[in-house]
Write a structure and sequence with these properties.
- The structure holds 2 protein chains of 2 kinds.
- In chain A, 18% of the residues lie in helices and 24% in strands.
- By secondary structure, chain A is α+β, with helices and mostly antiparallel strands.
- Chain A has a 5-stranded mixed β-sheet, with helices on one face.
- The N and C termini of chain A lie far apart (36 Å).
- In chain B, helix 10 runs parallel beside helix 11, helix 15 runs parallel beside helix 16 and helix 18 packs across helix 19.
- Chain B starts with 27 loop residues before the first helix and ends with a helix.
- Chain B has 20 helices and 30 strands.
- Chain B is α+β, with helices and mostly antiparallel strands.
- In chain B, 27% of the residues lie in helices and 27% in strands.
- Classes of the chains: A alpha+beta, B alpha+beta.
- Chains A and B meet through helix 2, strand 4 and strand 5 of A and strand 11 and helix 10 of B.
């Protein structure tokens, strides 16, 4: 299962846990697994089937251009990060 | 302290013949001789001149706009208002390093229902001359309902503050505020348990910091010339960081397919982030379409300051805790950034960078993007990072003093390394932070005594993440063996030279054989903006791939001539070779180029990349100042800037980037800041009252290049241009403290503030 870093503003759903484990071969599947374990997560990470505005996802330390469709390996590290805007 | 981890740039290192050398810039002759065409220089047959009517109010509702008299004026070809714009969806798009909401972008180009800052565009006129256009502006009648303005970022967050966008609710990740607010968004990063971290601390320092709204200060104003063909195709000549982003920013408001817009970027006379956003392109295009002739719009200096995008003023509250041995235990930051009239300050990148230099076990960062009645902020060189570095690096200096530690030793004790997990959740990969600090510590400047009264030395350390993204390059082989390199990346900092150098190195040919140019949006694949210090790195990878493509194709052509398979052909330093039954064959690049027609036609190497890994960069600065105790004037005596550049392709250009950024940082530290009165009227929209540094204010700046190669680039290049603006305000503040005993926590550090701090006034 992948290791998933949860942004602090969503940790109310994980009981304060910053890192949780979730299975899935894509980021979308990982979010489905998170939703099953922590209801409400999907609506905040990917409302309307898109990654939430202002959010980026990094898989194994690379910001994934495929977003929800990005592949995830068994031991991947998935990080939902607040996107860095240049202003 | 050891020097062993310091790697310095060496010309011709690792067998390179072009990389690491200092050839003249390929764009220099045109610029020196006055041949270069900048935005305001463009002239087309039948061209009209556009001028923009701007709001005298900082905040007002537009009741009506009457353009009839202006339209009837002789010599006037067209008048446009927001009614001429398409309905644009409330949608976020990526532009350059930042995101834009296209509806807000439209409203910023031409206000629809409200004006939100003094200078906000309301209408535009195209006429036979600039003077006729200016006279016509006076005939446009706008009925305003003035509203109370708010220009202070903290005032704007308070209950009862005038609301700029009445329906705006604060966005946080997946959530919305309950009541309308000027706080457009709230971001938060949390690592570990900050309360525990502060409980473990033996020394805690905290302070509130303020920085002013400052402008990029480029000399060339925004200028665009639009020309429509009879069949509805638009050609736009504009001064911009990125021609593809400029195209997108025009396409949405005009509801025009991208394929019908060709953007030809002009030479850029300074930008520093400020030309990522379009301010006159849309007006020029609307006017030209309505007038049926080309229209050029050029901003005046006052318009540039009033109505383009400066960077955010900010208020920051910062707290850090440490053990007596200097190890940081916790950090906490609360950042309020002005977004200007519409959401979108760089508070996100400020938050990303504030603690990125250090390993900190516990921390929390809260960032607030706040709209105020000032122009919509835009990118400025390392957007958002200079503000937070001013706070963090000043507070660290205070901590070092409390601990009785050398300021660089304190930083070394906490310095981040590869694998460091930041409070933001990002993890560093291949960084040269420690190498930069050690080079700084060991530099003769840091080791030299500083004598004399009222003098002080300060240091500061900083990080900027840089960027990768999309780049496109083609390399055409001419019959005589010369080559034409074309990329889609606008050249702002000399990248035509640094890119051609990479091609020359790969090809093993003299740089003089390669002509380097910038292609337009019809000629090139999508290329992201020249920003995020990305071009020499990311476009450089495309260029290296295109050069390798040329070599592969040319090997195939040689193989044809020699009756071999291509893999039998080798290539080194301009010569193709192969062993054949008839003996060793050899042909120079130029000889083979003469045979390309006979062997299949033109050879063109190409590459299109989307770089997803990029190397962050660190810089540490040392500055000596002298403060006049009677006048408060700061004189900078000596300045040294140390930076990890990965691999120096052109050390001279890198030194220029570092020196230029430091000069800009000196202005931010000591002089610059938008001044407003209580009605939101900007008081210093000119370069007499808004002072930027002149050559009299800037000392010789020694740039020290450290090379810790970035492993994802063929030569190890990291971004260079942005990080050197980040440390100067903090370094200068720390030096002023050593000289006067006064800790200043507000920029700019004017003589008045210094004298107040010293108790003189």
């Amino acid at each position: 299962m992948a290791s998933v870093w949860i942004p602090s503003l969503l940790r109310d759903l994980t009981g304060g846990q910053a890192t949780v484990r979730a299975s899935g071969r894509t980021v979308a599947q990982v979010i489905e697994a998170l939703e099953a374990a922590y209801p409400g997560m999907k609506a905040r990470l990917s409302p309307g089937g898109e990654l939430a505005a202002g959010l980026a996802v990094a898989v194994d330390n690379i910001v994934a251009p495929l977003g929800l469709r990005a592949p995830v390996a068994e031991e991947s590290e998935v990080r939902f990060l607040q996107a860095v805007g240049g202003g | 302290m050891s020097r062993k981890n310091t790697v310095r740039a060496t010309q011709g290192a690792e067998g390179y013949t072009v990389v690491g050398t200092r050839p003249p810039r390929v764009d220099a002759p045109d610029k020196v001789a006055g041949h270069a065409i900048y935005g305001p220089d463009v002239a087309l047959p039948r061209m009209a001149y556009g001028k923009i009517l701007r709001s005298p109010h900082a905040h007002a509702r537009i009741r009506s706009i009457d353009t009839r008299q202006a339209e009837a004026m002789p010599g006037v070809y067209a008048v446009v208002t927001a009614k001429d714009l398409s309905e644009v969806a409330d949608r976020i798009g990526r532009v350059g390093e930042s995101s834009v909401n296209f509806k807000f972008l439209c409203d910023n180009n031409l206000a629809s229902d409200k004006v939100l800052y003094m200078g906000h565009a309301v209408a535009a006129v195209a006429a036979s001359s600039p003077h006729v256009a200016e006279d016509a502006l006076k005939l446009i009648k706008v009925d305003y309902e003035p509203l109370p303005p708010v220009t202070d970022v903290l005032e704007a967050t308070r209950e009862g503050a005038p609301l700029l966008h009445e329906g705006m609710l604060t966005k946080s990740l997946g959530g919305l505020g309950e009541r309308p607010s000027n706080i457009a968004s709230h971001i938060q990063h949390l690592k570990g348990d900050p309360a525990q971290g502060f409980a473990e601390a033996e020394v805690i320092v905290e302070r509130e910091f303020r920085t002013a709204t400052v402008h990029q200060g480029y000399l060339e104003p925004h200028a665009a010339t639009a020309d429509w063909s009879p069949d509805g195709f638009l050609t736009l000549y504009t001064t911009t960081h990125g021609s593809f982003d400029a195209r997108a920013q025009v396409a949405e408001p005009l509801d025009c397919p991208l394929s019908k817009i060709r953007v030809i970027p002009t030479e850029v006379g300074g930008a520093f982030g400020g030309k990522n956003i379009s301010y006159v392109d849309v007006a020029a295009a609307l006017l030209a379409r309505k007038a049926g002739r080309p229209v050029k719009v050029t901003m005046s200096r006052a318009e540039v300051l009033l109505a383009s995008g400066p960077t955010s003023g900010s208020v920051m509250h910062l707290k850090i805790g440490a053990k007596r041995d200097g190890r940081l235990t916790a950090a906490k930051a609360e950042l309020f950034y002005e977004a200007g009239a519409y959401p979108g300050s760089p508070v996100g990148s400020g938050a990303y960078c504030i603690f990125a230099c250090y390993e900190i076990p516990h921390g929390q960062i809260d960032g607030y993007d706040v709209v105020v009645n000032k122009p919509k902020t835009g990118p400025l060189r390392a957007p958002g990072a200079t503000q937070t570095a001013f706070a963090m690096e000043t507070l660290l200096d205070e901590l070092a003093e409390k601990l009785g530690m050398d300021p660089i030793e304190l930083r070394l004790r906490n310095v981040a390394h590869e694998g460091t997990l930041l409070i933001t959740g990002n993890r560093h990969y291949s960084i040269g932070a420690e190498e930069v600090l050690r080079a700084t510590y060991n530099h003769p400047h840091y080791q030299a005594p500083l004598g004399g009264p009222h003098r002080g030395r300060g240091v500061a350390f900083a990080y900027w993440g840089n960027w990768g993204a999309r780049s496109s390059a083609i390399l055409n082989v001419n019959d005589d063996g010369t080559l034409a390199l074309v990329t889609g990346s606008v050249d702002i900092t000399g990248t035509r030279t640094s890119l051609a150098m990479q091609a020359a190195e790969v090809l093993g040919l003299p740089l003089t054989r390669i002509r380097s140019a910038v292609g337009d949006t019809d000629a090139m694949g999508h290329s992201d903006t020249t920003g995020g210090s990305r071009t020499t790195m990311a476009t450089g990878i495309a260029v290296v791939e295109a050069a390798n493509d040329v070599i592969a194709q040319m090997k195939g052509r040689a193989a044809q001539l020699w009756g071999l398979s291509a893999e039998k052909v080798t290539y080194k330093r301009g010569v193709f070779r192969a062993s054949t039954p008839g003996g060793m064959q050899e042909m120079s690049f130029a000889e083979l180029a003469g045979q390309v027609s006979a062997t299949g036609g033109p050879v063109r190497g190409k590459s299109d990349v989307n770089i997803r890994k990029w190397g962050g960069a660190f810089g540490a600065h040392i500055v000596d100042v002298e403060v006049d105790p009677e006048t408060g004037k700061v004189r900078i005596l000596r300045y040294t800037a140390v930076q990890d550049v990965g691999r120096a392709i052109h050390p001279g250009q890198i030194e220029g980037q570092i020196q230029g950024a430091v000069a800009q940082g000196i202005g931010w530290a000591l002089y610059e800041g938008y001044a407003y009165d209580a009605q939101g009227q900007m008081l210093n929209a000119n370069f007499l009252d808004y002072k930027i540094p002149t050559m009299l204010d800037v000392p010789p700046i020694e740039a020290v290049i450290v090379e810790v190669p970035w492993p994802e680039h063929p030569f190890g290049v990291r971004g260079v241009g942005e990080v050197p603006i980040v440390p100067p305000p903090a370094a200068i503040a720390n030096a002023i403290y050593r000289a006067t005993g006064t800790r200043l926590a507000e920029l700019p550090m004017t003589p008045e503030r210094i004298l107040q701090g010293m108790g003189v006034i």
